[in-house]
Specification:
This is DUF306 domain-containing protein. Keywords: Membrane, Transmembrane, Transmembrane helix. This protein is mostly beta strands. The chain is built from one helix and 23 strands. Strands 1, 2, 3, 17, 18, 19, 20, 21, 22 and 23 form a ten-stranded mixed sheet that branches. β9 and β10 form a beta hairpin. The protein starts with a strand and ends in a 10-residue tail after the last strand.
Length: 297
């Protein structure tokens, strides 16, 4: 099944669940100030991080250590990705934050967020923040004021690990470059409506990226070109990098579908319009975990 995430301000959003669990479609409200992971993984430069209270030296993105000498059991820590680059300490050098996983011999795969500073004395790794066991990472982003925003899906309380993660969650973290520890930032929706009361038509949504379950990503070549606007009369309008269009949407509880979609017929070489409209056609429902203070009802 595919998902679409529509975000308001820094983090407020909606997860649309589509068919086949193939991935995530992510939209961001216009004028949001967010940067995204890109480029060569900085984590492949050797650095030491503190994971679960232990120092871990990642060499080329990997660390393998024995649980105890001669035990044969190993702790495997490896670079996962979702990397965002940013100058955390303001020294003019590019630093980074990214996810790592750790396996300790059981069935668990434990996810952590870490940061790495590029200093005049070499690379310095941070203490990791535990995110969860066998979660489904989505994106790591830079929000305002040096805040690192980690978006991922986890299981509902009481669900077994055989159930695919489907509950959206976001963590806001701020790195103290002196202690190399992250602090949790309270999520603040100042200036926004009550998340439990917001409706789709309150915002214009922009397509940011699509991430499939196999890790394949599609991003618009031009941000702010792909828009989606819901209207109270159950119609919607859309814009792409080539044409304008619209249609009708039907909502029934958590179900949503886009119908009678039409667009103008201009041809544009290299347009991603077909990718965008295909995503909308495959949406079947949406999930609104507002109890996490992160998503719209």
């Amino acid at each position: 099944m595919r998902k679409i995430i529509i975000r308001v301000s820094l983090i407020l959003g909606i997860i649309f669940l589509g068919v086949l669990y193939l991935g995530v479609y992510k939209f961001n409200v216009a004028n949001d100030d967010v940067s995204f992971n890109a480029g060569t993984p900085a984590s492949l430069d050797n650095a030491t991080y503190k994971i679960n209270g232990q120092n871990v030296l990642l060499k080329n993105g990997l660390s393998v250590t024995e649980v105890a000498p001669g035990s044969g059991s190993k702790i495997i820590t490896r670079y996962f990705g979702n990397e965002v680059k940013h100058d955390f300490d303001g020294d003019g050098r590019e630093d980074s934050a990214f996810l790592v996983t750790q396996e300790t011999g059981g069935s668990g795969i434990f996810y952590y967020i870490v940061a790495r500073l590029n200093t005049v004395h070499g690379y310095i790794g941070s203490e990791g923040v535990f995110l969860g066991d066998r979660i489904s990472p989505q994106t790591t982003e830079m929000g305002k004021g040096n805040i690192v925003v980690v978006n991922y899906a986890e299981r509902a309380k009481g669900e077994s690990f055989s159930v695919q993660p489907s509950v959206g969650k976001s963590r806001w973290l701020l790195l103290d470059t002196k202690t190399m520890q992250f602090g949790e930032v309270a999520q603040n929706f100042e200036g926004e409506a009550d998340p439990a009361q917001m409706t789709l038509e309150m915002k214009t949504w922009d397509w940011i990226n699509t991430t499939y379950g196999d890790g394949t990503q599609i991003r618009p070549h031009s941000l702010k070109k792909f828009t989606l606007l819901f209207k109270k009369d159950s119609t919607f309008s859309l814009g792409t990098d080539c044409n304008r269009g619209g249609g009708e949407y039907v909502m029934n509880g958590s179900k949503i579908s886009f119908e009678k979609m039409i667009t103008t017929m201009m041809y544009c070489d290299g347009s991603q319009e077909s990718d965008f409209t295909k995503m909308l056609c495959e949406v079947s429902s949406y999930l609104s975990p507002h109890e996490e203070n992160s998503f719209l009802t």
